[in-house]
Specification:
single chain; 236 residues; Glutaredoxin; Glutathione S-transferase Yfyf (Class Pi), Chain A, domain 2; 11 helices; 4 strands
């Protein structure tokens, strides 16, 4: 039995979308990161990095959302080009682009705009710029075809959807989708899929903590409360 450790953040939602697209039987295991449940020894035995999502499948333990997407795609043979297909390389490239660029820059953009105790103008500007630059690359790619790999809906589109659903909030721009019309088209199409409706409905399965109080801040951003260190030192 697959066990899916999740919350409602962008990365777990990518995996939820796949699980419902493939109609895979699974057990939901909510992890409330505002209550520090990701820092328990039990959870860190699954993911030492204390991040969501995590998926277990029998003895297999997989963390990092794009690794999970690739694992599930290979397990089921769905939503990816077959071995030997030229698009297999493109899928890996774009999947890593989301993992190493699109997601991290978008996450840092929203962090420095909305959550950082201090908001250095340079950091706000840098991450906003880089997030928009990465999203423009996605939009340009989608100008060439309906999906990230052309005519075929794949796990790359699911990975993009996970972050794209929060774009207005992350970049603090209510008109952001007007700047990315091809992305807007893809998002609207995926949003209309039954699997996306089921993924969005996960919010009704478990009442995650809503308050962003000091305890939540300590859980999500412990560096705020950690002692200052000198440049060149390693944190304890």
């Amino acid at each position: 039995m697959i066990r899916f450790f999740y919350n409602m953040a962008p990365n777990p939602m990518k995996v939820a979308l796949f699980l419902y697209e493939a109609d895979l039987e699974h057990e939901l295991v909510p992890i409330d990161t505002k209550k520090a449940e990701q820092h328990t020894d039990t959870f860190k035995a699954l993911n030492p990095n204390a991040k969501l999502p995590v998926l277990t499948d029998g003895d297999a333990v997989i963390f990092d959302s794009n690794a999970i997407l690739l694992y599930l795609a290979e397990k089921t043979g769905q939503f990816l080009p077959p071995e030997g297909d030229a698009n297999r390389g493109a899928l890996l490239s774009w999947l890593m682009f989301v993992a190493s660029g699109l997601g991290p820059f978008s996450g840092q953009a929203v962090h420095f705009r909305n959550f950082a105790p201090e908001k250095p103008p340079y950091a706000v500007k840098r991450y906003d710029y880089e997030a928009r630059r990465h999203w423009q690359i996605v939009d340009d790619r989608l100008a060439k075809g309906p999906y990230m790999l052309g005519e075929t809906y794949t796990i790359v589109d699911m990975a993009v959807w996970g972050w794209g659903s929060r774009l207005t909030y992350m970049l603090g721009d209510d008109a952001i989708m007007e700047k990315y019309p091809n992305l807007d088209r893809l998002m609207s199409e995926i949003d209309a899929r039954p699997a996306a409706h089921r993924a969005a409905a996960l919010k009704d399965h478990h009442a995650f903590k809503a308050e962003f109080d000091e305890a939540a801040m300590r859980s999500l951003y412990p560096q705020v409360f950690a002692p200052d260190i000198e440049l060149g030192e390693s944190p304890a």
